[in-house]
Amino acid sequence: MRARPTDLDDPDDHGPGATPPVGATIVADEVTKSYGSLARAVDGVSLRVEARQFALLSGPSGSGKSTLLNLIAGFDIPDAGTITVDGRPVTDTTDMAHFRREVLGFVFQSHHLISGLTALDNVDVALLPTGRRRAERVELARASLAEVGMAARTTHLPSQLSGGERQRVAVARALANRPRLLLADEPTGQLDTASGVEILELFRALRDRLGMTILLVSHDEEARRYADVTFQMRDGRLVTRAPPQDAGA
Predict the structure, then answer these.
(1) Cβ-count burial 176-202 (b if 16+ within 10 Å, e if not)
(2) Strand pairing of 26-33 and 42-49?
(3) N or C: fewer beta carbons within 10 Å in the chain?
(4) Are the beta carbons of 219 and 225 closer than 8 angstroms?
(5) pTM exceeds 0.85 for this model
(6) How far is Cα 10 from Cα 31, in angstroms, rounded to an integer?
(7) DSSP, residue by residue, 138-168
(8) Which residue has the higher pLDDT, 94 or 86?
């Protein structure tokens, strides 16, 4: 079993001691998305997140930040504008399977763990599309759980875990394919303050250690202390871009 961060696998190099993945650059250019006759959920948004950057997308409920995150993830298609990751459109359906399998990790607000599966099996399931053998998947799943501080909880069911622990398993699941880009939609929204801070600290530590790009959606002002840069949305538009607020304090 390999639990040290330096022993975790890169998608393209499965040997011990593989180099951590290099973060991906996100560029959104005049992106617009509407639903029916309603006001535009995303209205001409342009932003750039550099490789290995920890970026926060903030704003009140209904500001369009989760819609934009889903567009960046390729879960939806913009009506206008373009979104690229390392210069490649995320809407290129011929590459979508590879993008989701090798580039993208996604953490939802609700952990979406399968209640009848252990923490280890919940992570293992996410690796099924990679075509790896069971033994290799289990090894990667154990390493991912160790990475988020859950090595001692691999055999526990979701019902036996706290809210913060369930979200850590969800993060481990998103990390299992060693993504270059980690997107997270309100991952602290259903947690108490202390558990929420633990998750934010975990994200920053993972970025520092593994070199991935992280884009976090949150309306929690506490998240600004952990990000390298903050983009703020309101009524579907990007209104400000701000540096971190005394990160590490």
Answers:
(1) bbbbbbbbbbbbbeebeeebbbbbbeb
(2) antiparallel
(3) C
(4) no
(5) no
(6) 31
(7) HHHHHHHHHHTT-GGGTT--GGGS-HHHHHH
(8) 86
